[in-house]
From TrEMBL:
<protein>
    <recommendedName>
        <fullName>Fimbrillin family protein</fullName>
    </recommendedName>
</protein>
<feature type="signal peptide">
    <location>
        <begin position="1"/>
        <end position="21"/>
    </location>
</feature>
<keyword id="KW-0732">Signal</keyword>
<dbReference type="Pfam" id="PF13149">
    <property type="entry name" value="Mfa_like_1"/>
</dbReference>
<dbReference type="InterPro" id="IPR025049">
    <property type="entry name" value="Mfa-like_1"/>
</dbReference>
Amino acid sequence: MKQLVSLAALAVMLSATGCTQQEVFTGDEENGEPVTLGISTGVLTTETKSVVGSDMITYTKANYASDALGMGVVVLNADGNGAYSGGEISTDHLWFMGDEKGENWKSISAKGENFVSATTAPYTLNDEVGTVYAYYPKTSTVSGTSASALTIPAPLQKTGTIALSDDVTNADLRFDGTSWVANASASKKKIICASTETDYLYANNSDRKVSNGRAADSPDRSIDLSMAHALTMVSFRLYNDGTLPGAGSLTKIELKNAETKTLIKTTEGATMKLADGTIAGLSDNTSDVLTRTVSSYTIPKEIKAGETLSANTYIVSGTVTGPKVARKISILTYPLTNISDKDIEVVFTIDNQTYTVSLPVTDVWAWQAGTNYVYTVCASQRKLEVTSVSVAEWNEEPGGNIEL
């Protein structure tokens, strides 16, 4: 946020629900110095750039130029019907950047070559009350001048590549070189998806008011922002029950509408409303396909007792099952309502063969924003089948079981 003059710099720490918060203010409200707006924020359930899957918005320091996107903040007046400064909305549209650990957030005007060299542009508050709206990732422009009209572009990633690494697994179990053991590694909560996915977040606050805090009964200069996901995540974990021949190399996933259906859409015209994360601009667009090329995903295969275990094979026991050793790979899509069985299909390319499966629906007959629907897929000689559907962190929910 930004307006007036400023003397102060701001440090902010973004974290997930149950957020740890750090605020540093150098403006002095008691002696008449300009007061800097302070922000702390957390993501409702869990990483970002490309997808937020941990409790911090982080990036690799060496990839600052491409991966450090920052957060956008807009400050409106008390009634939410105009810019806080009284001028153009661009004056009160701010860019906050954090370091690679997701700490020390500051308002900036230029990104620079690294976090340290980013040009700070602290935003100060006057006696008037302001209303705060925030979103991730920062865009160059925001449309609208009122609370109900503020939007940013929210295009969906139509194509992309999901590249896996042997040393990163988000499965329930991991192979330690001799056996499958509980996965206690930091990567267990890793969201494996295309690096170009964009996880749109918005501040889901009931209290958005701020001011310099000098007037009696006025709001404080600081605000805690609670960030929420505007999109839906659909994840797949595949395992071979031992009957599907071949190497089990998964090379492509296509998420598509069944014939005559138009639920899944992609468009450059979609927008996200900053007030509540609503996605708009889809009604006039035709149906589409979300395609992800996949590299280095070998479907784990069941073997018999006495055979040699590896990172790509497993022996069923009381603690080891196909679903538990399978890694999850994910795709972001727009939320959907009124989904019926067989409305949406997924096409898997395995060892150069394609398998098309209808996705079962969940209890709510929808793909809700902020929810990760995890489909467990059994690849067998008979067919590919969804064997369960769950909803879990992000929030994650079982999406169903599928058999190939």
